């Protein structure tokens, strides 16, 4: 081998070795085990959910896979394995904190309280909380909930908001909780609750997948606006930087808009439902200037 070629190869090898040694925190751990562990939601349409073959699909899942691609390049691990672990609203923060999962891209809200426990990526979606009711009900606003039972999913910001609302207003509203969104909708469907309070995109997906979608309406003025983001270990700046760069590129080069159209404005698997949720002005602003700001500042 010519001397110059050999020297170049040695320099390249030294550079790669130095880069690998420079890795810290979770990126170093991911590199060492040659595996990244992703947390996903099982039924959070259209963010992260199962298709008919129990394959995880969705808007957030597509973004997570883009982040994984970038991590592979950043740490020099083209053969990096991806392990998937289901999470729910009750355990997702703990599983990030104890190191069980490296990254969670589902439908998790970035707010100030949670930011004390975990870090969040740049915002990937913006949602608002509203009510899902039966079309023939007399519920059209929060004022109409007095004396009624309201379904909510345990461990969500919607549950926290509703409990705070009841306490502050001394409102005669009964809460019925469920482990996931599908079970919360079932409480509405079967009459155990008169309304389901949650993010509007979740409500739209539950309505669209119902046996008789026209029997339900999304109603009431938005109570909160929330930034949806991927969740990361607290204080791991290197991993967060990779996630943020990936999301910023998606949102500014047109691919993010295409992803949004695919999952929120087009028929999606497994039943071909179309949520028909145009991109809001708030999300358009995020795509123009990607950031990780919560909306409860």
Topology:
Blueprint lengths: L2 H20 L2 H9 L1 E6 L2 E2 L3 E3 L5 E2 L1 H17 L5 E6 L5 H6 L5 E2 L4 E2 L8 E16 L14 E5 L3 H13 L4 E5 L2 H9 L5 E5 H9 L7 E4 L5 E8 L4 H16 L2 H10 L16 H8 L9
Parallel strand pairs: 1-5, 1-6, 9-10, 9-11
Antiparallel strand pairs: 2-3, 3-4, 7-13, 8-11, 8-12, 8-13
Helix pairs in contact: 3-8
Keywords: Signal, Transport
Pfam family, one: SBP_bac_3
Protein name: Transporter substrate-binding domain-containing protein
Structural commentary:
The protein has 297 residues and is an alpha/beta fold. The protein folds into 2 domains: 3-126 and 226-288, 3-Layer(aba) Sandwich (D-Maltodextrin-Binding Protein, domain 2), CATH 3.40.190; 129-225, Periplasmic binding protein-like II (D-Maltodextrin-Binding Protein, domain 2, 3-Layer(aba) Sandwich), CATH 3.40.190.10. Helices cover 39% and strands 22% of the residues. The strands form 3 sheets. Strands 7, 8, 9, 10, 11, 12 and 13 form a 7-stranded mixed beta sheet that branches. Strands 5-1-6 form a 3-stranded parallel beta sheet. Strands 2-3-4 form a 3-stranded antiparallel beta sheet. The model is unreliable at 2-20 (pLDDT under 50). Belongs to the bacterial solute-binding protein 3 family. Pfam families: SBP_bac_3 (PF00497).
Task: Label this structure with key terms.
D-Maltodextrin-Binding Protein, domain 2; 297 residues; globular; seven-stranded mixed beta sheet; single chain; Bact_solute-bind_prot3; three-stranded parallel beta sheet; 2 domains; alpha/beta; 10 helices; signal; disordered N terminus
